[in-house]
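Re: the multi-chain job from yesterday

Posting the exact lines I submitted so nobody has to dig through the queue logs.
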Amino acid sequence: MVKSNEQKEIMVIERYIYLAIALFCIGIVGVLARRNAIIIFMCIELMLNAVNLLLVAFSKMHYAAGVAKNAAAGIDGQLFVFFIMVVAAAEVSVGLAIIVMMYRNTHSVDVNFLNRLKH
Amino acid sequence: MDISQVLFYALSAIALGSAIMVVISRNPVHSVLWLIVTFFAISGHYILMNAQFLGIVNLIVYAGAIMVLFLFVIMLMNLNAETEPQKNKWLKLAGVVAGGCLLLVLVAALKQAEVKGKVAMLGTGDIGLIHNLGKALFTDYVIPFEISSVLFLSAMVGTVVIGKK
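And the result, structure tokens for all chains:
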């Protein structure tokens, strides 16, 4: 995007918070209402991405507040997002392996078939 | 209303609409494709905030690798037909009501929060560039970086062990 030198482009942080809350709640609804294990897993990824978006927005907020004192203010938030992506990649590989194993045992990915653990 | 505001609202609308389509799609393959659209919109938000490294990593890791893994598993299990049984409408309704209540509580809590007047800088600022992120990653965060490599190794071993059973 084009950098404008004469005026700084800013965005009120509340809009990002509302957007992240909305994405997170859509993910919650998906986890609660769907029964396909893969779609539940995708909704968990959606919630992780909502949190990542909010972390980046907050990092830019802290940058706007503290750039006068510290030129690297708010860089921690973006590194946290990087580590969340690392953990999410590891989580997806193990989780999909578990779903494949579950499909091999029950020939379904419906999570309602998983309640046999209780008896 | 300048160009960045227009881009913000357009990307937000794309992200929210495709996220809703992820949840309500019958076919799991369509859900994966809508989730890829959501990730593209979120990457657009990152680039709008000048977090260029995270935007590209989000595209490569999430939309490129993880979603391909999901598609691979779905097609391996031959789930691309509609297989989910539709038994209980009340469970779906309860899920939607619970999610809506969480949305209501979070928005109501945000009304009391002290975020009024705080702004996020778009476009300007170079903390999202790979030069600064790499310098911070390999000086202040070098221990978590190395530990994450151990995490990847253990995840790989775990996946192989689970898959071989």
